[in-house]
From TrEMBL:
Cross-referenced SUPFAM superfamilies: CBS-domain pair (SSF54631)
Region (Disordered): 1-72
CBS domain sequence ranges: 78-134, 165-220
Keywords: CBS domain
Protein name: CBS-domain-containing membrane protein
Source taxonomy: Bacteria, Pseudomonadati, Pseudomonadota, Alphaproteobacteria, Hyphomicrobiales
UniProt keyword tRNA-binding present: no
Tagged with keyword Lipid metabolism: no
Length: 298
């Protein structure tokens, strides 16, 4: 739920919950009920078909508050139906696959199914067929490394995947966290990583898969609203993690409405605190009363 950066004067409305979970007779009235007051929702959620008391049944539905959610892994987001080619696949066919499937690279696998390389768009942009191979002056050809020149010729004129592929492939495993994969992609400036189980190809993870994971993310719904004290404590810890000026920040929470006052050193610091508040579960609106410290010019 996105917090609004202003104080709300309207009565707080309850969070929507799907009515099928409660059944048609959860509350009196005609038709399905989409929203319920907090008290009634707690009572309804506390009931079980066997009449189990609320304090006994709640533990089985909600994980402990200090239990961190499981981090997303490569297995959660990777593309499993991956297109691959062999070392003998013609370059023209590989280019057709990239263009037809609208993908930027294909792994190259050997006869045993092991990953032996990858062919990406960057491997195919310097090609003799379209006249984009590098052209050197006569004196550069004289001074050039003969072995490097020969390898360059193979890459621009070779007709098989083994001629153009990048053989030193960085792979990922299914149990790698998305944080680890992102670190590898950034450090090595890669757009995708083949996923291997042992040496066998089982999928591929790309930057677009990470973007899709962001698009699928939804804030978790909570049946019992956190108390104002719990929300304030949560927000206070978040503010401590984003700014060294947290001692100059005063936070109060009333019925989900956060009031944040104090002094910060920069507008960026103030914005970070507001973002931290927006990401704190239970906050419905934000009153921003933070001031940016003026800097004297000597």
């Amino acid at each position: 739920m996105t917090a609004r950066h202003k104080r709300s004067t309207e009565p707080l409305s309850p969070h929507p919950l799907p009515s099928p979970a409660f059944g048609p007779s959860s509350v009196p009235g005609d038709g399905p009920i989409d929203i319920l007051p907090w008290r009634l929702r707690r009572e309804t959620l506390g009931r079980s078909p066997q009449g189990t008391p609320d304090n006994q049944d709640r533990g089985s539905r909600h994980p402990p508050e200090d239990e961190a959610p499981r981090p997303l892994t490569v297995a959660d987001v990777m593309t499993r139906d991956v297109v691959s080619v062999s070392t003998a696949s013609p370059v023209s066919e590989i280019a057709g696959v990239l263009a037809g499937k609208r993908i930027s690279a294909v792994p190259v696998v050997g006869a045993d199914g092991h990953v032996v390389g990858i062919v990406s768009e960057s491997d195919l942009i310097r090609r003799a067929e379209i006249g984009t191979q590098r052209r050197r002056s006569w004196w550069r050809r004289i001074l050039a490394d003969i072995e490097a020149e020969a390898a360059e010729y193979v890459r621009t004129h070779g007709r098989k995947a083994r001629h153009v592929m990048t053989s030193r492939v960085v792979t990922a495993t299914e149990d790698m966290t998305l944080a680890d994969v992102t670190d590898v992609m950034e450090k090595r400036r890669l757009k995708r990583l083949p996923v291997a189980r042992g040496k066998h190809l089982v999928g591929i993870v790309s930057r677009s898969d990470l973007v899709k994971a962001v698009a699928r993310h939804r804030d978790p719904l909570f049946a019992d609203p956190p108390t104002d004290d719990a929300v304030r404590q949560d927000l206070t810890e978040r503010v401590k993690s984003v700014t060294p000026s947290h001692r100059l920040i005063h936070i109060s929470v009333h019925r989900g409405n956060a009031d944040i006052a104090g002094v910060v050193d920069s507008a960026a610091e103030r914005e970070a605190i507001l973002v931290a508040a927006e990401n704190t579960p239970g906050i419905r609106s934000i009153q921003n009363r933070m001031l940016v410290r003026s800097r004297s010019i000597s």
